[in-house]
Amino acid sequence: MEKQITDILRNLMACASVTNTEKEIAAETWMLDFFRKQPYFQTYPERCGLFPIPGDPLHRNTVWALVKCDGSDNEEQDGKAPENGLTAEEDINAIQTAGQRPTVIFMGHHDVVPADVYGDAAPWAFDLDNIAAHLNKENLSAEAYTDLLSGEWLFGRGCCDMLGGTAVQMALLAEQAEKVLQKTDKSKKTQNEKNMMADKPVKTLLSNPDEAIVDDGDEEELCGPGKADTCSALLFLSVPDEESFSAGMRGSLSLLEGLKEKYNLDYRLAICAEPNQRLADGKTQVVYSGSIGKLLPVVLVQGKLVQVGSYREGLNPLGILSRVVAATEGDETFTERYGEEVSVPPVWMYVRDLKEGYDFSLPKRAAGYCNVLTFQKTPAQVMAYFLGKIKGVLEEVSHPVTVMTWVTLWQQAKQHSGFEKFWQETERKKRELLQEEHKTFPEVTLWLMQRTLDFLNFDQPAVVFGFAPPYYPAVRSEEMKDAARFAVYKKALSALQEVEIKTYFPGVSDCSYCGIPEGTQNPVYQVNTPLWGKEYHFAVDALARLQIPFFLFGPWGRDLHQAGERVNRYSLTEEYPAVLRKLLHCVW
Ligand SMILES: [Zn+2]
């Protein structure tokens, strides 16, 4: 398998699938071709495909492939005890939901960050075999250089984040598919003999509303009546755009729901193959069972424009905004603790006046946006925190200042005459800014806030609060459905490899869209995000329905996004595939 993993990795890297570019499609096509070449998918061509990301201007796709297996088709058949570190009782506990197919999702992303940081070595950044020869002391850290000399690491853009993990998952899916096919051939022969003596079993008819998932109507070939509870499945899913705005994962929720319904899948565990770090001992790998939340609150301040000589009659929005920034930036009282883990305080990413050019008057408006990472705090709590700080700042301002959330401002605009026409034109211009002028989400959010204030001819001092995309909900696998079963998987993983399972992956990941606990959907975010809708959204209801517990568990990697990006050769080609294989059988 070692050779197959490095072959896949080499080919995937060569696609140079830089995030938010058409090049991601090259990787998608390569992956689909790989699956189509497997005998299993030649027999069942409908079980793999490209799922177009809805509304994506770059026309990118999620690559998916599904192998339906018979649960008894594993090592346990040889009469050996399962090597997953579980007692027989726990193993039984892991197989409970009769009638649904226990399913593991291998998930990942096929986009990579650009290779500019490689400098002179950039032309080889995507060349797995030759990049090492072009790296040296000058472009690597001391640790990376030592690793380079050791020969134990593979270098190059994407090898670690995360095409390496993806290559392993593709190879394992192919292996599983081959096993199933061999078993099917055997069972077909037996079936033919039986058919000579009895009527054919009635086929289960499956309806499929989703055009992207074609019904292959062969439900019973591997799972005859009475066997359904032992049938399992492995679903591979690789999304585009993870390194940008997660359009791939957000857009794939309907695919996940469609496949679940069509094949009666019980998504028991997703394993996202993002690389992991290890503790200083070089052995204990840090794995995550949750992913941190991220929000981008936006504050726009409208002051009172006067000539600087009349300063006392005016109101400088920069004065207010900078005090809001000072009251919140790095505020440790905002941070959250979960066990030993502590979240990062608010960090302002952008603060400036909105005046174009220079003159001798106060700026009319100023705005900023702030990066907020959360464990448990909801958008409503984050909003309450910021509004509280804003009101605190305004208590020391001599002029009256109105504080508004975006939804309040928008409601006022809706009641204003001429709104329909105004909004139609705004929608058109908004699309143009995003798609043709490639303005960022926060830029267009600020543009929308200003445009709406202008439409209302609102010229009193005001502070408008809202959110800009992206939004990553904070998630913890332990609080999703079937928590007891997930506890068993954690135990199994700990028995299979030396790991430290932490809760919140601090780097923000697509796993945020694996599900949210029921009852936590709150419309505060949606109504206060001017761009929520066609331009940016995800199916919040689908998240509440899906609730897929996950591990962020991949091979051992270092220095992702840097020129020293590397993945440990042994971890990638031997250890990780072996552990994944065993973990699969624990879930099935
Ligand atoms: Zn990644």
UniProtKB/TrEMBL annotation:
Highest taxon above the source species: Bacteria
- Do you know which SUPFAM superfamilies this protein is assigned to? Zn-dependent exopeptidases (SSF53187)
Q: Which PANTHER family match?
A: ACETYLORNITHINE DEACETYLASE, PROTEIN ROCB
What name is this protein filed under? Arginine utilization protein RocB
